[in-house]
Amino acid sequence: VQLVESGGGLVQAGGSLRLSCEASGYSLEKYAIGWFRQVPGKEREGVSCISSTDGNIYYADSVLGRFTISSNVAKNTVYLQMNSLKPEDTAVYYCAAAFFYSDSGTMRCHHNDYWGRGTQVTVSS
Questions:
Q1: Which residues have C-beta within 8 Å of that of residue 89, sequence separation ≥ 6?
Q2: By CB atoms within 10 Å of each CB, which of 68, 69, 93, 121 scores lowest?
Q3: Could you tell me the end-to-end alpha-carbon distance of the chain, in angstroms, rounded to an integer?
Q4: Range 85-100 average pLDDT
């Protein structure tokens, strides 16, 4: 399994970036995939996940309404469109294999064992 992220960079607050993750050896037609982010000294945080199999989509509360996840099964690629970026969105963003689970009726996602190397997103104020 190989997950390769691209699209990170430096952007001013209020700006937009689009991250891409191309998967090989891991079929987005069969399995969920997600974006996670990490700031040095803090735990890795789930940002958004998608499952093409059953249509489940998850967003962290902190990005709801600003970020949009999508996937192209034919290209085996997942995207994260990030709008209205804030300085607190600054982090290394990782693409990872994921799965959904029910938490008292609310669908959430968690990472699985396969990770990309990450792409840095820096939002200046």
A1: 37, 63, 82, 121, 123
A2: 68
A3: 37
A4: 97
CB 22 within 8 A of CB 75: yes
Sequence-distant (≥ 6) Cβ neighbours of residue 104 within 8 angstroms: none
- What confidence tens digit (pLDDT) does each residue in 40-90 have? 999 999 999 999 998 999 999 999 999 999 999 999 999 999 999 999 999
CB atoms within 10 A of CB 105: 5
CA–CA dist 28, 15 (Å, integer): 29
> How do beta strands 2-6 and 17-24 pair?
antiparallel
